[in-house]
Design brief:
Elements (H helix, E strand, L loop, with lengths): L5 E7 L3 E8 L2 E8 L5 H15 L4 H6 L1 E7 L2 H8 L5 E6 L23 E4 L2 E2 L5 E3 L3 H13 L4 E5 L8 H13 L10 E3 L9 H31 L6 E4 L5 E3 L11 H17 L4 E6 L4 E7 L2 E2 L1 E2 L3 E2 L2 E2 L4 E2 L2 E3 L5 E6 L2 E8 L18 H7 L17 H16 L3 H26 L8 E5 L3 H12 L3 E4 L6 H6 L4 E14 L2 E2 L3 H21 L8 E10 L2 E6 L11 H5 L8 E13 L20 E9 L3 E9 L8 E3 L2 E4 L4 E4 L4 E4 L5 E4 L1
Helix pairs in contact: 1-6, 3-6, 4-5, 8-9, 8-10, 9-10, 10-11
Length: 672
């Protein structure tokens, strides 16, 4: 095998870390437990397991690996666990109290009011520095914040999105007083580094959340990259971004990684949408902790231009993912005769009761084991043995006895409740977008997705489902489709009234040229020549509370060039549309996965039948049910429900009236 044959994509989830490896002769997947205490451990474990599966020493495998993409939950975990550094905020005098409001109830968990100090300075609304920042006042503020325990200082001044002079002056003052070799604040960050959009409070929140996750993110990602390099990998480690691409560690903004794993799954679903020429798709990633839903309507990904992180709005556009507490580890309980499942999760440790690791609460996975859907001796292809007795005991004690029903009936109710909750979330998502479920194709994945997708799809009115051969590792597959992407922005501060723009064409052109030069320089650092980089200009525009990002030409010659901005809003001629921010997106192509097409064979799946076992089905109780091996099914095979299809990474539950067919791309199409 020649060098640079392997392309690796790793996705860290709440319970498992998945790896997808492609190479000239095919692809393979691996799964390892997520190590919450240090995500670089499961990152390396995933690489080691992939190398072993390919019968290669890790060093040889990494020497021959061209690309590693990594979607990580480091930032997400840091926020959830509140494990980031204590941050001291230096703001414009008079703005201290405005940061603490009902709009962002949770920010005090990151920076308490005693860690916010205002200093006298002023930049006016036109970007003119009226009052320069005073060095002595900044030094005093920094000293006070450090005495109160701040380990990192953040500077955010009003209107500095126009001109960062005062922010940078304050940073220089602090770094001069406390140079790096002193044990003072070992990092000083400014808001202009992460947001050039107007809106002082949101800009400050953006910088605050980024600062909070910056240090643990940098420490972990550089450790992961260094570990891979020390073992033979010679290229940059590419980090998944919530905006929909990847970037090298040194070019990654910490906040941009937030929720990047679920986003990679949605982008994998979008690749399937293109492959099958579909109009509207719903992605459903059901893992151990939760289910993540993404919508693609009329071929367009749903993007949130003002998402919230830790209950704070931030200036980082993200591909929209709706998360619900319904996964394999969701805990079932009964209170006052009412059964509930989730959002509490047993996680990976101790996990469901059937894991036999000390967990005692019944979960969705315990219910699937008790119903006979999951073979306790073949979980994860036999890599992990489950204890069916522990599952039954937990369900009996905490669900069956309180409801006065059998263990099997209690397990079925747990399954129906969690699937009903998911169906409710799907119906809400589609209704908000005016979509008829019958017109939507579901892309189901995650470790628990194939086990539950038919039930919650039917409850939501969806009749067609697509699953990949490596459904449990599909988010890692989605990561393998991502190109290197960077976004650059600068405040525009112009308006469009009716169809008459007030844009200074020459200033617009100068700004674009400056952003393009920065983009080309950064992409050169990522290994791309200028002619390999695709550039797209867009404008973040606002009408009232409505925000849209609209593609526009990179050069404005006349008013008609801004027609797309006007057309994006249902505006009256006299309405003024604010052109808040000019955005340049640079994309560098990275080799991605192409799915092979196969000839369709016979529909008879009997060669893949591995036996049968009793399973408990709604309305019929215990029924002897055929069991098939997913890896032995070939294109053209069709499995009629009721049936169980076991794969090395998940189990497909195919009820009555559903048919599971392997298509020409070796994907599983489930229809009713």
């Amino acid at each position: 095998m020649v060098e640079d044959d392997y392309y690796v994509s790793i996705d860290t989830g709440g319970t498992f870390t998945d790896g997808y490896v492609s190479y000239p002769d095919g692809s393979t997947t691996v799964k390892v437990p997520t190590t919450d205490h240090d995500l670089t451990v499961c990152f390396r474990n995933c690489i080691d397991k992939a190398a072993a599966k390919l019968e290669k020493p890790t060093e040889e495998f990494l020497v021959n690996t061209d690309v590693i993409r990594f979607s990580t939950t480091i930032g997400t975990n840091t926020i959830i666990e509140r494990s980031g550094p204590k941050i001291g905020l230096i703001v414009t005098a008079g703005e201290e109290d405005g940061l603490f409001s009902a709009e962002a109830e949770d920010e005090s968990l990151i920076a308490g009011e005693d860690l916010v100090i205002g200093v006298e300075e002023r930049t006016d609304a036109d970007g003119e520095v009226v009052d320069p920042v005073d060095a002595d006042e900044v030094q005093a503020a920094a000293k006070t914040l450090m005495n109160r325990g701040a380990k990192l200082l953040l500077i955010s001044f009003a209107n500095s999105f126009h001109d960062e002079t005062n922010e940078e002056r304050a940073r220089t003052v602090i770094e001069t007083e406390y140079p790096p070799h002193y044990l003072g604040p070992n990092q000083v960050l400014t808001a202009n580094e992460v947001s050039s959009r107007p809106g002082y409070r949101t800009r400050t929140y953006t910088a605050l959340v980024n600062a909070y996750v910056h240090r643990p993110m940098a420490r972990s990602l550089y450790k992961a990259e260094d570990d891979a390099r020390n073992s033979g990998y010679s290229n940059p480690l590419l980090i998944g971004q919530s905006t929909g691409g990847v970037a090298g560690v040194s070019k990654t903004v910490a906040l941009h990684t937030y929720n990047s794993g679920p986003v990679a799954g949605v982008l994998g679903a979008d690749a399937f949408r293109e492959l099958y020429d579909l109009e509207s798709v719903l992605s459903a990633d059901m893992g151990g902790t939760s289910i993540d839903l993404g919508t693609i309507v009329d071929g367009e990904l749903e993007r949130n231009l003002l998402p919230e992180v830790a209950d704070m709005p931030v200036h980082v556009p993200m591909i929209d993912v709706h998360t619900a507490g319904a996964g394999g580890g969701s805990v079932a309980s009964v209170s006052d005769g009412e059964l509930s499942v989730g959002p509490e999760s047993a996680g990976a440790e101790p996990g469901p009761a059937c894991y036999d690791l000390g967990g005692f609460q019944p979960t969705t996975t315990d219910a699937d084991v008790a119903l006979g859907y999951i073979d306790p001796d073949y979980f994860l292809g036999g890599d992990q043995q489950l204890n069916a007795d522990r599952a039954a005991e937990a369900i009996e004690r905490q669900v069956a006895d309180p409801l006065d029903v059998s263990v099997a009936e209690a397990a079925l109710r747990v399954r129906q409740r969690v699937d009903g909750n998911i169906a409710d979330s799907i119906e809400t998502q589609l209704a908000e977008r005016g979509e008829d479920p019958a017109d939507v194709t579901l892309i189901a994945y995650g470790g628990a997705g194939p086990t539950h997708c038919c039930t919650f799809a039917e409850a939501a009115g969806i009749t067609r489902i697509i699953t990949a051969p490596a459904a449990a590792e599909f988010s890692a597959f989605g990561g393998a489709t991502l190109d290197v992407e960077h976004r650059y922005s600068e405040a525009l501060g112009e308006t469009v009234a009716g169809d008459v723009p007030s844009v200074d064409e020459h200033a617009f052109e100068r700004t674009i040229e400056r952003l393009e030069a920065e983009a080309i320089q950064d992409m050169a650092g990522e290994g791309f020549d200028a002619d390999e980089v695709a550039l797209q200009t867009s404008i973040l525009a606002r009408l009232g509370d409505e925000i849209r990002e609209v593609d526009v030409p990179s050069r404005i010659d006349d008013s008609s060039d801004l027609d797309p901005v006007i057309d994006a809003f249902d505006a009256d001629p006299e309405d003024e549309i604010d052109l808040d921010t000019l955005v340049l997106t640079a994309v560098g192509p990275v080799a991605t996965e192409d799915l092979d097409r196969h000839e369709l064979g016979d529909a008879d799946p009997s060669d893949a039948r591995k036996g049968s076992r009793e399973a408990y089905w709604p309305g019929d109780g215990w029924v002897e049910t055929d069991v098939y091996q997913r890896e032995d099914l070939v294109p053209g095979n069709a499995v009629e429900g009721r049936a169980l299809i076991e794969a090395t990474d998940t189990t497909y539950v195919v009820p009555d009236d559903w048919t599971y067919t392997i298509d020409e791309y070796a994907n599983g199409i489930i229809e009713r």
